[in-house]
Amino acid sequence: MPELALVEERPGLGGLCGRDLLRIDDLAAGELLALLDLAERLKALQHERIPHPMLPGRSLAMIFEKPSTRTRVSFEVGMAQLGGHAVHLATAESQLGRGEPIADTGAVLSRYVDAIMIRTGAHARAEALAQAASVPVVNGLTDEHHPCQALADLMVLRERLGELEGRRLAWVGDGLNNVCHSLLTAAAMAGMEVVVASPEGYAPDPGVVAAAAAPVAVVEDPRAAVAGADAVVTDTWTSMGQEDERHQRLRDLAGYQVNAALLEAAAPGHVVLHCLPAHCGEEITEDVLWGPSSAAWDEAENRLHAQKALLAMIVE
């Protein structure tokens, strides 16, 4: 099986070995593309049921301080497919739930496992874990960044659109959002034209916009953003921890729904992305989410393949 032999050699992966991924811009543009290339190869192998045990005997600790479906299943199944295994640590089931400092947890887990994934609130908490750990740490989600989702998003955009350089990506809705921050960073690195349409008070973090590899336009008019767009992306208007703001957010973002009328302005053959879970009738309509332009389900699947590639590249 030549494909298997090629993967088992882990060619060209040494540059990321031992490194953390807390933000997309922890990667150079070339590293991002190499990771996506590997993810595509691993996806093909998995679809052909060709084993690819690149991480035999390795282990991943998964810290969940926020609940998850896609993150837990994709990392746990991914490690199994790579020949390793994952350990699920919910806050209530670990000493973190009794107040153990995150740095202490990182130091201890580093003696047991080969990598740590954390899904938490403040990004500073993931940074503190990475600083204390001596094994790679992966950000499975923080309030500010969601790099693993951006990897899956870019992967599906390459599958659907081909070459991304010069393509237009429009984000519609809440731009002060972890997925928006990571995706605008990744898309700019890939040479895409990025436009974010958000109402006042919901624009992405200016620091994230300023740090992007290419200029990112921030506007208030969603139709202007979507005009000629090859990809249109949205996310829930009320993320975890924002439930008390739900009614205000629904009012503020009411004009930013991704629906058939809005998509009339998009380019022919456009792709619609949503990281899920979706609230149909709010940020997106059901006919769009389940329609022919939607890549939400491929996007969800690609969490598995992109994260496998990431783990293969960072775990020693």
What does this structure look like?
This protein has 316 residues and is an alpha/beta fold. The chain folds into two domains: 2-146 and 302-314, Aspartate/ornithine carbamoyltransferase (Rossmann fold); 148-300, 3-Layer(aba) Sandwich (Rossmann fold), CATH 3.40.50. The chain contains 13 helices and nine strands. It has helices at 2-8, 29-47, 70-81, 102-109, 123-132, 147-161, 178-189, 206-211, 222-226, 246-252, 260-263, 286-289, 296-314, and strands at residues 59-64, 85-90, 115-119, 137-141, 168-172, 193-197, 216-219, 231-234, 271-274. The strands form two sheets. It has a five-stranded parallel β-sheet with strand order 7-6-5-8-9. The chain has a four-stranded parallel β-sheet with strand order 2-1-3-4, sandwiched between helices. α6 (147-161) packs across α13. The chain is globular and about 55 Å long. The two termini are 24 Å apart.
Helix fraction bin? 40-55%
Query: Architecture of the largest domain, CATH level 2?
Result: 3-Layer(aba) Sandwich
Note the total helix count. Answer: 13
Overall 3D form: globular
Sequence stretches where pLDDT stays below 50 over 5 or more residues: 1-8
CATH class of the largest domain: Alpha Beta
Strand and helix layout:
Layout: H1 2-8, H2 29-47, E1 59-64, H3 70-81, E2 85-90, H4 102-109, E3 115-119, H5 123-132, E4 137-141, H6 147-161, E5 168-172, H7 178-189, E6 193-197, H8 206-211, E7 216-219, H9 222-226, E8 231-234, H10 246-252, H11 260-263, E9 271-274, H12 286-289, H13 296-314
Parallel strand pairs: 1-2, 1-3, 3-4, 5-6, 5-8, 6-7, 8-9
